[in-house]
non-specific protein-tyrosine kinase (Proteiniclasticum aestuarii), 234 residues
Amino acid sequence: MRDLLVTLTDSKSVAAEAYRTLRTNIQFSSFDEEMKIITVTSSRPSEGKSTVACNMAVTFAENGNRVLLIDADLRRPTVHKKFKLPNSLGIVNLILEPQRMNEIIHEDVIEGLDIVTSGAIPPNPSELLGSKRNRALLSKLREEYDTIILDTPPLLAVTDAQVLTTISDGTVIVAQHGVTKKDEILQAKSLLEKVKGNILGVVLSQIPMDDNSHYYYYSYEEKKTGRKERRTKK
């Protein structure tokens, strides 16, 4: 699955440049508010949100940030597969035993990028992620990292992403080209707005390369003003 990490395997490609553009858009999405913890989610499964989260993490690290990528998808975790990491211990263990941080965090998987995999899947993911223990953990990690990216489950399936959005500074929604329906994106948007989530924008993934683009990215502010931007042409 490492071939999906184009920011590592083909850093000069159109796709890799698209992720760098996405990073820049996120960094400048707010001048007045700190953008440290970013949730990445989607409306439905298999829309590419984990791939987007992983490539985002790489580009933030390449920009000189100290980055932590957390696989908070405790339903179908894949981050460990993409980076070929062991997954016996992960965020589940870290929430329950934060004193084992040095043992659980995979440090400098690439320069500047630390990773916490999921660990064993618990019977109560939503409750664990929304617990005081997890809030305290993320508060502590916030002090140690420039950027924390949370890969979370789809919004329309479970409540996990909603829970984590309340702890995050901003949320990116991933939608799949030719598959995700408009009403699904609107439902996902509505769910985030119900918990007062800060929606940074939408990434449209898996656009065929003959469409002259890897993805679209637009913020809701752009949508309100009637402007929609197409990024990173071939």
Notes: The longest strand covers residues 170-176. The beta strands are 37-42, 67-71, 106-110, 113-116, 147-151, 170-176, 199-205, 216-218. Residues 2-224 form a domain with the Rossmann fold fold (CATH 3.40.50.300). The chain has a mean pLDDT of 87.
